[in-house]
């Protein structure tokens, strides 16, 4: 009888502890969720401001997200939505998530900004696992290499320079690290190429409501 009562007491204490912990965690989440959401929104805005001029659009980018079209999803390998930047309902820019699968250490997640004509505005790296001190130079906080994509025109007729110098392209590679920058350059080019080949897509977006 004593053993049964001891077990019951132990179970009740564990149950009480579990309930108290759940309440504490729930209270903490309720208290902090708005702050977390605000910080995430601010981080997103800081990222967007690196890609497109904040004076060029008037909408909330997160409120004009659309699914990546099938023709583009096969190239971008990303299930994140495309973001439309509009200036008083007129298309100003498009932000496209795209993932390079051939980084030295695997997937490199990128965000590309293009104007309404398909020209490249900027590129930023969202996440990667490349080697610190070598491949991580793709980060804007580590070097200015990624800025070499700024405001580049793109056409199907002029694609020769879209590779690193070692392979005859116009983009610098890193000392001791060619795979990482080449993966980024080639993925950006693949994405731009897919959009250029599907020329009606951007025109349709310009009438998107």
From TrEMBL:
Pfam families: FMN_bind (PF04205). Keywords: Cell inner membrane, Cell membrane, Electron transport, Flavoprotein, FMN, Membrane, Phosphoprotein, Translocase, Transmembrane, Transmembrane helix, Transport. Its main location: membrane. Residues 103-195 form the FMN-binding domain. The modification FMN phosphoryl threonine is found at residue 178. The keyword Nucleotidyltransferase does not apply. It is a single-pass membrane protein. It is found in: Cell inner membrane. One of its GO terms (biological process) is electron transport chain. Its EC number is 7.-.-.-. Its cofactor is FMN. Belongs to the RnfG family. HAMAP family: RsxG_RnfG (MF_00479). The complex is composed of six subunits: RnfA, RnfB, RnfC, RnfD, RnfE and RnfG. Part of a membrane-bound complex that couples electron transfer with translocation of ions across the membrane. This is Ion-translocating oxidoreductase complex subunit G. The lineage of its organism: Bacteria, Pseudomonadati, Pseudomonadota, Gammaproteobacteria, Cellvibrionales.
